[in-house]
Design goal:
heterodimer, A: mainly beta
């Protein structure tokens, strides 16, 4: 596609439920990032995928958070047993294949509200 | 200490004035620096990146980098109301693939 897409655009869930967020990166982009942005805050790094390398999970806030990516395509971020503090916008970004190309292109985000 | 620090603002400037946005970072080894603009309710979009000390100009935007002072700035000349947004400074980790973002500076350009 022309840009990074994310689904759903909005998600309302009840505390304790699991949610799955999806990201479709720009075709050909080998690097993919997930960020969390709480209201009025900056972007908080969650996880990074690069090709078939092991992901950098150092930003995941707890073991309730996990993410997968199949090759260089779609990624899913799963939050288990959601808590109210998980309410935020979850942004996905992809980056070009060359290590010299460091510009990230962001998707529109998924706005998650945990009641 | 946060990896990247910005004044949260809000910063208000009159239309046509120069807006100056500042950012400091803690990782002395960082080599890549980025400015993103984020309109309310939208995702960030890249304005400029800078790798070398000094100034880099692109239209009305100038990024300035001083690695010795660990300081990055963004100047917006001839500010327009459409420049009203939150500006995020981002720094790429020297040792990994993480990008550290500041909390952003809210800019309002008053017509």
């Amino acid at each position: 596609g022309a840009g990074v897409s994310q689904s759903p655009s909005n998600k309302v869930t009840e505390k304790g439920k699991d949610v799955e967020l999806r990201c479709d990166p720009i075709s050909g982009h080998t690097a993919l990032y997930w960020y969390r942005q709480r209201l009025g805050q900056g972007l908080e790094f969650l996880i990074y995928f690069q090709g078939n390398s092991a992901p950098d999970k150092s930003g995941l806030p707890s073991d309730r958070f996990s993410a997968e990516r199949t090759g260089e395509s779609v990624s899913t971020l799963t939050i288990q047993r959601t808590q109210q503090e998980d309410s935020a916008v979850y942004l996905c970004a992809s980056r070009g294949g060359s290590f010299l190309v460091e510009t990230q292109y962001f998707g529109p985000g998924t706005r998650l509200l945990v009641l | 200490q946060k990896e990247v620090e910005q004044n949260s603002g809000p910063l208000s400037v009159p239309e046509g004035a120069i807006a100056s946005l500042n950012c400091t970072y803690s990782d002395r080894g960082s080599q890549s620096f980025f400015w993103y603009r984020q309109y309310s309710g939208k995702s960030p979009e890249l304005i400029m990146f800078i790798y070398s000390n000094g100034d880099k100009e692109d239209g009305r935007f100038t990024a300035q980098l001083n690695k010795a002072s660990q300081y990055v700035s963004l100047l917006i000349r001839d500010s327009q109301p459409s420049d009203s947004a939150t500006y995020l400074c981002a720094v790429k980790s020297a040792t990994g693939n993480q990008f550290y973002f500041g909390t952003g500076t809210s800019l309002t350009v008053i017509p």
